[in-house]
Amino acid sequence: MALFAIQQVTNRDTGFSPHELVFGRRMRGKLDTLYVGWVEDCYSKVDVCKWVQLLQERLKVLHEVAVANASIATNKNKSLRQLEVGDKVLLRIPGLRAALEASREGPYDVQERLSRVNYKVCKGGGKKKKVVHINNTKRFKGVLPPETEARNRKLTVFAMSLYFFFCVLWAYFVVTDGMSTNRGLQQAKFEE
Predict the structure, then answer these.
(1) Looking at residue 187, what is its pLDDT?
(2) Cβ–Cβ under 8 Å, residues 7 and 16
(3) Which residue would you say has higher pLDDT here, 182 or 13?
(4) Is the distance from CB of 101 to CB of 95 less than 8 angstroms?
(5) Does the pLDDT at position 185 exceed 60?
(6) Is 90 helix (H, G, I), strand (E, B) or coil?
(7) Angle (CA) 129 109 91, round 5°
(8) CB under 8 Å to 12, separation ≥6 — which residues?
(9) Calpha distance 162→129 (Å, rounded)
(10) How far apart are CA 21 and CA 4, in angstroms?
(11) Are 22 and 16 in contact (CB under 8 A)?
């Protein structure tokens, strides 16, 4: 019953129901069938060749109108963003959390437009350049959002603590490895 309902409902984008686009006519429900049986003579003689030709023409017109309606509906809310060389942008950082909480870093300067949607950017006139898609950028309006500043501070603290941790770990392994090597030599001498 649900499939029947889905096939019968007119699509907002195309302006036709799926059944109309496939079969070239409105879907007849139980009440429509009863109505046609009461009002019209349902056993009228129809030339099959003529009926198929009319069906093909109807399907062709339906297809053209549906494609036009779908393209209008698709382009209604589309607007192509563009960046100019010299613009400042923030780059989206894919977060470990939900996509709605993705943070941004920057500002980056737009150096070059590579294509309609790809740009080459660099941070603060540096030499390291990145190629980014326009969907991963947001215009920089002069003030960093508080969550970006907080995240940058957290990243800095995290990076420093991670660096310190690895230095301590490295020192531990150097010291213990040296001790174990000496122990191994001492044990080897002792066994001889």
Answers:
(1) 52
(2) no
(3) 13
(4) yes
(5) no
(6) strand
(7) 75
(8) 73
(9) 26
(10) 15
(11) no
* Rounded distance between C-alpha atoms, residue 141 and residue 31, angstroms: 60
Surface-to-core class of residue 136, CB atoms within 10 Å of its CB (0-12 exposed, 13-18 middle, 19+ buried): middle
123 token code pair: 């941070």
Give me 144's structure tokens.
Answer: 């960093």
Q: How far is Cα 170 from Cα 163, in angstroms, rounded to an integer?
A: 10
Cβ neighbours for 31, distance < 8 A, ≥ 6 positions apart:
none
Summarize pLDDT for 73-106 with one digit per residue, the tens.
Answer: 877 766 778 888 888 888 887 765 555 555 778 7
In the chain, % of residues over pLDDT 70: 68
Give which of 155, 128, 123 is closest to 140, Cα–Cα: 123
Q: Which of 144, 141, 146, 145 is closest to 87 using CA atoms?
A: 141
The structure tokens 């001889």 sit at: 192
For the chain, the structural domain boundaries read 2-75, 88-144, 146-192
